[in-house]
Amino acid sequence: MSERKDLPERESMEFDVVIVGAGPAGLSAAIRLKQVNPELTVVVLEKGAEVGAHILSGAVVDPVGIDRLLPGWTKEEDHPFKTRVRDDQFLFLGPAGSFACRIS
Ligand SMILES: Cc1cc2nc3c(=O)[nH]c(=O)nc-3n(C[C@H](O)[C@H](O)[C@H](O)COP(=O)(O)OP(=O)(O)OC[C@H]3O[C@@H](n4cnc5c(N)ncnc54)[C@H](O)[C@@H]3O)c2cc1C
Questions:
Q1: Euclidean distance between the first and final Cα of the chain, in Å?
Q2: Which atom number of ligand 1 is nearest to the Cα of residue 27?
Q3: What is the largest CA-CA distance in the chain?
Q4: Quick check: helix, strand or coil at residue 38?
Q5: Does 61 sit in the ligand 1 pocket, CB within 6 Å?
Q6: Does a structural domain hold residue 35?
Q7: Ligand 1 near 22 CB (within 6 A)
Q8: Is residue 12 in contact with ligand 1, taking CB distance under 6 Å?
Q9: Which ranges of the chain would DSSP assign to H, the alpha helix?
Q10: How many domains does the chain have?
Q11: Is residue 78 part of a domain?
């Protein structure tokens, strides 16, 4: 392959692992890799303006995954989940009115 002489030389950085996307999957993978082997160099690339730009809407989150990944995360002062879900109700909306369906 011929190199174009009119372009500036490209910078490059080497990492053991490159993760594309800083959504829950990418961030979890990066955290887990560093937990398993802190020596690994891991980079997460995100096309959004900031990490989390495209993440959850903030409605409801099942913490089962984060509980396993980061035990004790609820003791961190600045974690974003402030309100515990105590009850779920599903409403079926129709022309004749609505009815609730209890999920337990
Ligand atoms: C409107 C809406 C509301 C939701 N509400 C909830 C909720 O309340 N609770 C819940 O648990 N789940 C919710 N979800 C689902 C949740 O957002 C997804 O399950 C979750 O984000 C999936 O995580 P992910 O890491 O697989 O993908 P994503 O979160 O989509 O992360 C992928 C990331 O990769 C980046 N990316 C993509 N291509 C490139 C590239 N070429 N280069 C660099 N970066 C790239 C994207 O910008 C993005 O940040 C909601 C989803 C939507 C759409």
A1: 62
A2: 25
A3: 72
A4: coil
A5: yes
A6: yes
A7: yes
A8: no
A9: 24-36, 64-69
A10: 1
A11: no
